[in-house]
């Protein structure tokens, strides 16, 4: 099996309920290694809930989730991050009072795998200071790669909206992910920022050899960068295919536009 044909993430009959509401209803799907997959649907379709299930913020009532053939259904969020799953959020969640570099370094502290390292950092022992220097160097290197090094010592809140989105992706990359989940990365962007973001996401996939799933309402983004698309409505998977297939799918048009569909 070729590397690009390997399935990195697999969901089998995954279901999540909130009281009487079924937010994700018996969802089955997969993501191939190196793929750029789109996840779309009307508001309330269950897209972000699915991301929360993949990252461990929620646990399902039914079904299983596998990452690189490991069952992660009930693993904690930090365990999944260490395995190689990272995400961004619909609403920017940067540490606004920290610098750009510090925001990236926060993500790198995942490498401190025990309370002993935390004690060493608090006590400022030589081994901890050496690790901190190395993390700073790695953070600066990452910022240089993604084009943000010139802002390293600025507060995150001082960046433009588009650059804050870019920093959020860079912070996720600092964890060394194999799978990156982007939740509406183009939300609130102007047309020029959106085009730059599209190019950046494709570049991130190719440069970092990372698999990406994107939730996005801007169809220009989804159709412009994704190789395959899943469509959700009322928690259910209603369509799957290449961008052109999805554009011409009458069930998808009905879900988005309310068009009548003759079956």
From TrEMBL:
Q: Does the keyword Transport apply?
A: yes
Taxonomic superkingdom: Bacteria
Q: Which Gene3D superfamilies match?
A: P-loop containing nucleotide triphosphate hydrolases
Q: Name one GO cellular component term.
A: plasma membrane
Q: Which InterPro entries match?
A: AAA+_ATPase, ABC_AA/LPS_Transport, ABC_transporter-like_ATP-bd, BCA_ABC_TP_C, P-loop_NTPase
What keywords would UniProt list here? ATP-binding, Nucleotide-binding, Transport
* ABC transporter domain mapped to chain residues: 9-259
Segment forming the signal sequence: none
User: Tell me, what is one Gene Ontology molecular-function annotation carried by this entry?
Assistant: ATP binding
Q: Give any Pfam family that matches.
A: BCA_ABC_TP_C
Q: Which regions span the lipid bilayer?
A: none
Q: Which GO terms describe its biological process?
A: D-alanine transmembrane transport; L-alanine transport; L-isoleucine import across plasma membrane; L-valine import across plasma membrane
From the Swiss-Prot or TrEMBL record, give the protein name: Amino acid/amide ABC transporter ATP-binding protein 1, HAAT family
